[in-house]
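Exercise: predict the structure of this protein bound to 3,4-dihydroxyphenylalanine.
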Amino acid sequence: MRDGNSSENSIPNVKNLLVDLLTAIEQASSSKEMDELKVHYFGKKGLFTNILKSVGNLDPEKRKELGLEVNDAKKTFEARFSLQLNAIKQNEENEQLAKEWLDVTLPLNIPPQSSGSGSIHPVSIVRKELEDIFLGLGFDVVDGPEVDSEFFNFESLNIPGTHPARDMQDTIWTTKAPYLMRTHTSTNQVRTLLERGAPVRIVAPGRCFRYERLDATHEHTFYQMDGMMVDRKVSVGHLIYFMKTLLRKIYGFEPKIRLRPGYFPFVEPGFELDIWFNNRWLELLPCGLMHPEVLKHGGLDPKEWQGFAFGLGLSRLVMTRFQIDDIRHMQSGDLRFLRQF
Ligand code: DAH
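Solution:
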């Protein structure tokens, strides 16, 4: 039978081993080191595992004592191990965060829109404002096709095929007669009269197309907002009232306006409406009383019904509103331009 001393010499002292282990845990600074420690002491060939394997050679009393000792050591180890491992992991996470640190308050040199959100096109901004104003005045907003017939674009507006007024608008024709890219949104006057009858008040915003020589004020694609009001006994007085109300809402002050004679085959009398702005007269919008021929095309008796119509140059209005010096910016799709709105 072996005595206690000889057994203590041949088998590593559990307590000493535990002290070594706890010291090693204390000094470990990475989870990798911790894993290695665990294997070194409690792995298949670990120091404590070896002790347990060797208990088979001891007498039962000693075996039990040593077994308990190793178990206690293991419990102490596990408690300390998990504490230290948590601390290390916390440290490692902090280090990782510090490496990936991002100052969200730093000014970016990329505009925020590049993150995916867009901005509203200036034409849409002004169009919506105008639509709101007109809705408040009892007008409906209507939409018509951009490729339209010669009838709605010209004939219904009192511009027959031989009429020299056709030369006022250089037209982009499609290869399928009699269709064309609408040259103005006045196409919606007779279309609306045929669809809705009278009385009626509408505005028709939208894109128009002309075969233009391009420069800072001419573009093949531009925006208009045509409008009309048809009712009994409509006079130039109504026209002036509505146009002044509109301009007061747009500009925010009582507008001083004047009407000059203007020629458009679909109005009689026809006017150019100018506004006094920055100490000079600014040509703003063509308008007039609807020509009897136009009302007739719309199925109305001009003795019973009258109307006024106007053609707001939306692109023009947007340019003065935002001080845009070149109409071509608006169709350019240039993000440097668009991101300013
Ligand atoms: N449609 C015309 C153009 O583009 C503008 C216009 C003039 C519209 C007078 C109207 C109007 O409704 O009454 O040249």
